[in-house]
Amino acid sequence: MGVTRSGYYSFQKRNKNKPDDPKHKEMLEWIQDIAESSGYTYGYRRMKAALNILSYPVGRNKTKKLMVEAGVKVRSRKKYKVTTNSNHKQPVYENLLNREFKVDQPNQVFASDITYIWTQEGWLYLAVVIDLYSRKVVGWSMGSRMKSKLVCDALKMAIWQRRPQPGLIHYSDRGSQYASKAFRNLLKIQGFCGSMSRKGDCWDNAVVESFFGSLKQERVQWKSYQTRYEAQQDILNYISMFYNSQRLHSYLGYKSPNEFEQEMAELRNVA
Q1: Virtual CA dihedral for 94, 99, 100, 103, nearest 10 degrees?
Q2: Which of 11, 197, 246, 270 is most exposed, with minimal Cβ within 10 Å?
Q3: What are the DSSP calls for 50-66, one per residue?
Q4: Above 80 in pLDDT, residue 175?
Q5: Cα torsion at 43, 216, 106, 34 (round to 10°)?
Q6: Could you tell me the pTM of the whole model?
Q7: 193-251 pLDDT, tens per residue?
Q8: CB 112 within 8 A of CB 171
Q9: Strand (E) positions, the chain?
Q10: pLDDT on residue 81
Q11: What is the dihedral of CA 28, 66, 42, 222, to 10 degrees?
């Protein structure tokens, strides 16, 4: 029939991926659903991982093409200025962590920081505590004032949820809230070891800064909060319903923190 072997197989391959192929349509629908549920924050790497989990063995290039065909675009990130008041006379802890962010067991190293979100009522301050083992947000506190109580309440929540043992390392920047007497006393009572970043070096606390970047890129910058309460509820929803339980983290092998912790706990029980 005047058709080469390679031409025939090439035709078959193209025909399999035609838009009227049911599997092709399914993937497009899944991409649209995943994009919507993630707030249009998944790039092709996370989208590929999500499709693979759903038993669609696609690669990066195929995922890119499918996202274009599905009309899915990733929201771009705005730049945010990070400020920390380290000009105080309170004592500071030495840097025990030294950018060693990989931790093999839960409840060994907590990292903390503060950020702020604008509302029509004024600034809302958010303090978080992250377990470096799974990148899970294990404690948080929000308020209209950036006082030591804000960071103390976030750590108390983490303690209540995780029940860590004495010897845990708590890592933060040199902000006055973390150097305050109230916070230092809380660490002492719990038997925790304080650790602080070098002055003016945000990379020393890169894990928490990354979380704040994700929060603002994926949720906050697309909102216009009228009240602090509205912002609090939306941020709470992001942390508990999406970031900890659904968001795929490349560091965790494209698993959510909750899924990663559950799988690791099952492996330890088997061992």
Answers
A1: 90
A2: 270
A3: HHHHTT----HHHHHHH
A4: yes
A5: -30
A6: 0.71
A7: 999 986 655 556 889 998 998 999 889 988 999 999 999 999 999 999 999 999 988 88
A8: yes
A9: 109-119, 122-131, 136-143, 169-172, 193-196
A10: 47
A11: -80
